Amino acid sequence: MATVSDANLGLWRDYSRPYLDQRQILATDFWSQWMTAFVAVCFTLTSPYVFKITKSFLVWFIGCLSWLTTEWNNAHSAEPSSLSSSVADDQTPLLQKQNVDDGTGHRPKNDIGSNTPNGQLPNGKPKSATERQSSDQRDTGGSISEEHSSQIVAALPAANCGPDSERRAPSVRGNEGPVDALNKSQDSREFGWKFVQYLLRGGAKQAKSPSTIMIVINTVLFGLFVAQAIAGVFSAKIASDRAGLSSSQHCGIWQFNENAGGEAADRDDLNNYQKETRASQYARTCYNSPDPTGPFSCRVFYNQSIAYNTKTHQLCPFASSELCHDGLYSAISFDTGYIDASVIGINSPTAHKFRRTSSCSPLNLSEPYVLPSSPGTNGTAYNYYYGPKDNTNYTFNTSGRPFEWLVPVYSVNTYFSSLYPESDYWQPIPELKPPNNSTLTIIFVSSMHIYHVRPSFDPIFPSHEPRYFEGFREPLYYNADPRARALACVDTSELCSPDGETCWSMTSPLSPGIKSSPEYWLMKWSLENSNTYDSIKWRLGTALLAQESVSQSVSIPLSPYQWQLEASQLFATSLARIQYDAWKIATGEDRERPGYIEVTPDEAKGRLCRLYKFKSSDYTNINLAAFVGLPLLAMTIFVLSWDARVVGLGFKEDESAASEPLIIDVIVRFIFHVLLALTVGICKGVTALFRKLGNCIKDRRSRIGAIDSDPS
Question: Which residues fall in a compositionally biased region of kind Basic and acidic residues (predicted)?
Fold first, then answer.
């Protein structure tokens, strides 16, 4: 399997990721830890500036709430004098009303001048000429104009708006405060405009209540406590995974030369057995467990497995449904769907797609497909007529009683109809012939000297003949039928364009308009040995899951659908074979084996290297965008937290001690101005449009009315 020396270190591009995450830096664990620590330090150093900006926002937000609360209270306490007078008159006792009406000189309690010395306001300041005149008018019982009333209300200090009101700091924009803006507003739109101006001035930052200070202090303390944790979380994000490109320079497609000699052929057989075994072992361990913890590593391929769907009670896959053991809908099917070639590790921006399907079913053992052979065999010899083989008219034959052979194994024989049936030694009968561009595999299974603790009625692994043993209450069960059981599977592989719109078979040339590329040849040759036959032909009986259940001639209970489990395992093995063969081609695994020659197509020769990606245990990928972007973000935060006045961006109204505008404040304020200007412009444009539309409708109605009223 691939080793850490096969990985290509440095900057590379993973096309399977989103665009911003494609560029990665593959580094050793040592350097990746240093790079991660660098980002963590950057974020830790910027934590005070982050909380400085957070403090600015909190003060601004709390100040806005305080401003709105104060103005709401003032709006209800500083009512127009005419309404206040009427309300006061309604609440004044009748006796006081009479005294006032009689001119006795008694004044209501809510009169402004009742508790102040003559010529002074409640705050001790001398009255202006206008205020003295209005006071004289009240003393003589004269009426007070609306203008004088508003001037008096405007002159009231904010501290007198209610018994629990706090004194608010004066606004930095002249002497006009929020209460003045409220009292001079004629409707809610003017009040809203004043509030927007208040926000744009940053006046909310002048709030210095104890609650604001405590919130800021608590936020800063809590932020300092979690700053390191946040920095660690962000820095950990830059280490993505352990995928990397193969650095092998010996990539290519190598096949065994049939003329290489007997010794080389024997070694090739052993080599093929090992390839089939490792694919089966990988499928057993890594396809059935999401995160296995065994000694066999499942983190070697770019994707741990190739996903597929399983469906039971499917249509019989053969030309005649009579050949299926249990009728028309007795098959099991497996389908990967259309899979992007990047799943098997091909790294390309225009990766092709492929699809693998398989459909299996036990075969009918009745006549005329299984018949006894010549007389004199005591009814234990059978011929299986699923198609002629070589010079015989039958496919397979058995003789004797397999159970009497004292070997606790399952005997397996396989037959195969390839994509090139004209060159095959076995030709299936028309009823069994697979569809075009598909392969057919028949697996004959014979149960030998094996006992079962429970009866089994599986069509491939039957065992329901009891046998009692002395000293045991329960019997053991065995298969007394001398006939072999047959399981047949039809496999299909499709190759598709990168967009998945056009597909073709393994034997067809590229469709018109589909460009030949090294990525395509790497995918196609990875699928060459992906079928049921190449998942069992070298291991035979040892490939069965049922064989693993046998110990000392006794088998533990099998599943009622054991044949379906076997078919699923064979299909998973064929998918794992795709993953291994892709790595084999990318690294040139067979180039040094005796008897192998290179058969790489000319358009792909020398161009299959560095197209394959896999996972290595000693390397780590660093996300380039995160590694560069996060430190830049930290620097941006540092700059945005500067005092705007230091760089000459502060406004005159911000130069008070209560206001410390940051650069981010100036930027936000500028954006607010731009958005406000755009909003006002749009509103004015829409208003003008509707006004013109209304005028047009009005003129049209006038003309229609004039026409209707004209008697002529």
Answer: 99-110, 128-149
